[in-house]
Amino acid sequence: MAGISWHYVFKFIITGDAAVGKSSLLIRLTDQRFLANPDPTLGVEFGSKLITIPEENKVVKLQCWDTAGTESFRSITRSYYRGAAGCLLVYDVTSRKSFLNARTWLADVRQHADPHLTCILVGNKVDLCDPEQDAEQSSEHTRTVSASSSKNPKRQVSLEEAELFAKEEGLLFVESSAKSGLNVDQAFEQAARDILEKIHRGAFDDDQSPGVKLSKPATQNNSLSLDSAKSRASCCSS
Ligand SMILES: Nc1nc2c(ncn2[C@@H]2O[C@H](COP(=O)(O)OP(=O)(O)OP(=O)(O)O)[C@@H](O)[C@H]2O)c(=O)[nH]1
Ligand SMILES: [Mg+2]
Q: Where in the sequence does UniProt note compositional bias of the Polar residues kind (predicted)?
C-alpha cells in the first residue's frame, strides 16, 4: 500500500443555473472559505480534493469541474460532462426558477455523462431561510403539499417538494449552505459513497468508465481492475 495517496479518482461535475452557488460550494469544499462576491464562472473551473471514506478505509480523489450556469457557455460546459461519474445538480432554495430549471440540466447531464452517473440534488443557500418558519411550514406540509412557501418570503422551494423530485428521478438529495458550510462536504461524500457502492456492484468498469479510475501502484501488475477491487472489498467487508 506504500505510495498510494488515493485509491480511486472520481470525475465530478457541478451544474445548475447561474448564481445558485456552484463555485461557492467547490471553494467551500477545497478551501473551507466563502466569498461574498465571487466572479461568475466563465466556462469551467477546476478543483480537487482528497476525501476519506472511513468505513471502507479508502481515499478518494474528487476531480471537480465547476461549470458556468450562464446559457451562453452551455455548449462549452456540456463537453465537460462526458464520462462524469458524479454530479452535483445545484439549485437555490430561494429561487423557484433555478429549481424548475434543474430538470433541463439533469436531462443534459444524463445525455452526456456516464450512464451509471450518481447525481445529488443540492438545494443551496439554506442559510437564507428562517429555520423556525421552516419547521412550521414542514408540519403544515403533512396536510397540504404546497409548491412554495408563502410564510417564508425567502424560501421558494420546500424541502418536501425537492425530496419528491429527487425520489422520482433517482437522485440523492441534500440542502446545503456554502456560506455556513452546512452539508457541503456531506454532499460530495454521499455521492462518492454511492459511486463506491456501484463499483462494488460492478456497474463501473475501469477501462470503460472515464470518470472512475483506480490506483495502480507500481508494485502491482497492470491487470488490477475495478473487478479486483470489488472482490477485495467483498472478501474483506464481512
Ligand atoms: N447566502 C448565501 N449566499 C451564497 C451561497 N452560495 C453562494 N452564495 C452567493 O451567491 C452568489 C453566486 O455564487 P456563485 O458561487 O458565484 O454561483 P455560481 O452558481 O457559481 O454562478 P455561475 O458561475 O455564474 O454559474 C454569490 O454572491 C455568492 O456569495 C450560500 O450558501 N448562501
Ligand atoms: Mg461559478
A: 217-228
